[in-house]
Amino acid sequence: MSSQTIILLCRERLISMAPRWKWALGFLSSCNVFLSEQAELLDRYCFGRLVFGAEKDKRWIQLSYEEAFFLFYKLKCIKISLHGRSLVNGVDLWRSIRSFKPNFTILYKAYSHLRSKN
């Protein structure tokens, strides 16, 4: 199965579940992005790192900035908020991430290239 097929399957699966969970909402922090919804699905498709919470059933997915931007902008399957405010477009998210990680541009370019090659 090609990398493009895998990425499209992931996107379709996340979007098909949208009516039930109204898009996965990630929270932007100073070093990464956390999502509680669809953590296991994202982990299955090799996005982020699965983190277990204090509660037995609570799982989070910890995404790098590059992974989060890819899911937000390229696949359009997650939403991201900063300080309780939803970032609605790629420019706002890009600027916010760049304020935390100045070398994000080159790292995202490399990540997106490698992700497309799987």
From TrEMBL:
GO molecular function, one term: tRNA-intron lyase activity
Originating organism: Arabidopsis thaliana x Arabidopsis arenosa
GO biological process: tRNA-type intron splice site recognition and cleavage
InterPro entries, A to Z: tRNA_intron_Endonuc_N, tRNA_splic
Keyword annotations: Endonuclease, Hydrolase, Nuclease
Residues covered by the tRNA intron endonuclease N-terminal domain: 26-94
PANTHER family (alphabetical): TRNA-SPLICING ENDONUCLEASE SUBUNIT SEN2
Protein name, UniProt field: tRNA intron endonuclease N-terminal
Example of a GO cellular component annotation carried by this entry: cytoplasm
Pfam families, alphabetized: tRNA_int_endo_N (PF02778)
